[in-house]
Specification:
single chain, 403 residues, alpha/beta, 5-stranded mixed β-sheet, 16 strands, binds zinc ion
Length: 403
């Protein structure tokens, strides 16, 4: 047994450390060897050997910073290789598909945005667009080592274990095995992972956005639909099947308007874009441009638009009060077009929080705007796609070389 332990463990430890080292560099963008030595609690020669392994795998590069005139030898900086492997991050939204090539460190190398309408929202059409975007991006990044995985953000409930979309009401998808469907069409059998947009947004805002450093975070993503993602004690709250966080479908009035989900009086029917447009008296049009026009009118002081934003902001405050009472977060990040509601009428949002949330939890929460602007779900999709590479860098690079 002792002999076996000696034979097996060093390699296991090396692989674990290699994964941890790559995670640190991915998280921080770049780090000095001295930072890595301190952060990982390993000696300098071990860090040196691990960095050499990552350099040999083509994942990171090292340089000596110039202009730093400190005593002793300057510490080498370890950074992701700009031409290293990337992931394809995809955001499928109601009105558009965004496909981006994202490198280690979270750098968006390039992206393609396609506006979509009814027929383009069919699952096969969406998959076809993503395959075409992947080829377009590969052409734009000729020197790169290529894609190592695909992460897709969907505005709906997604089964965690296999990326099966149970229901995406605003895309009109029910029971779509989207991860499998897309994987079949992707070249080189690229691994495809699918997640809920708000769950992915929560991860991205927690790792790289407005909620860095907070362990209890709720991300509320509201445009046409309203979804939520929850980070509890530093970890994502998935629920049994992966369906947790559907904050938009919290019932606030059983006699309220019908909701796409099949119920009535969900908070989404009071704070989603259709509610804003209804309150502003716009009944014959929809879409991002129409919503932006209402916000512009409100900013300019138009009475009806101001009142519409106030109505939505008040309901948003009630929604957030429920969220505060349920989850006691330190930060709530409000994204999508609801971010604009907070910008225009934060006072009404905070007033409802004051009125309705339990005092102790209310006192400890901040309402924040996204640090990643419109890209929260997209960057979260990239993080999902990086999972395999970060877990076992050498295996992934070997399999990449074999294809
Ligand atoms: Zn609903």
């Amino acid at each position: 047994l002792a002999a076996q332990r000696v034979a097996v463990r060093p390699e296991e430890i090396r692989r674990h450390n290699l994964s941890q080292l790559l995670r640190s560099i991915h998280q921080h963008g770049e780090l000095t060897r001295a930072d890595l030595t301190a952060a990982m609690g390993l000696n300098r020669s071990t860090i040196g050997a691990l960095v050499s392994d990552l350099v040999a795998l083509g994942l990171v590069t090292e340089y000596v910073p110039s202009g730093r005139d400190r005593a002793g030898r300057p510490s080498h900086v370890v950074a992701p290789r700009p031409d290293g492997p990337y992931v394809l991050a995809v955001e499928v939204a109601v009105e558009r598909i965004v496909t981006a090539a994202v490198g280690l460190g979270g750098t968006v190398h390039d992206r393609r945005v396609t506006a979509i309408d009814n027929a383009d929202r069919l699952p096969q059409a969406v998959a076809g667009q993503i395959v075409s975007d992947a080829a377009w991006l590969a052409d734009r990044l000729p020197g790169s080592q290529g894609a190592v995985g695909v992460g897709v953000s969907i505005p709906g409930t997604v089964r965690r274990r296999d990326g099966f979309v149970e229901h995406a009401p605003n895309l009109n998808w029910r029971a779509v095995p989207f991860a499998a469907l897309l994987a079949k069409r992707m070249p080189r059998h690229l691994d495809v992972q699918v997640g809920n947009d708000a769950d992915l947004g929560a991860v991205a805002e927690h790792q790289r956005g407005a909620a860095i450093g907070y362990d209890n975070v709720v991300y509320l993503n509201g445009s046409v639909g309203v979804g939520g993602g929850i980070i509890a004690e530093g970890a994502q709250l998935h629920g049994a099947g992966g369906y947790a966080g559907e904050i938009g479908h919290m019932t606030v009035n059983p006699d309220g308007p019908p909701c796409h989900c099949g119920s009535t009086g969900c908070i989404e029917t009071y704070i989603g874009e259709h509610a804003l447009l209804r309150a502003a008296g716009v009944t014959d049009q929809h879409g991002p441009k129409v919503v932006a026009a209402v916000f512009a009118e409100a900013a300019a002081g138009d009475r009806r638009a101001v009142d519409a934003v106030h109505t939505v902001a008040t309901w948003l405050g009630r929604c957030l009060a429920n969220v505060v009472n349920c989850f006691n977060p330190q930060a709530i990040v409000v994204g999508g077009s609801l971010a604009e509601v907070v910008r225009l009428d934060r006072v009404s949002v905070e007033a409802e929080l004051d009125r309705r949330a339990m005092a102790a939890a209310r006192a400890g929460v901040q309402v924040l705007l996204p640090g990643l602007d419109e890209d929260s779900a997209l960057i979260g999709a990239a993080e999902l796609a990086f999972g395999n590479l970060l877990a076992s860098p050498d295996e992934m690079v070997t399999s990449l070389a074999a294809t």
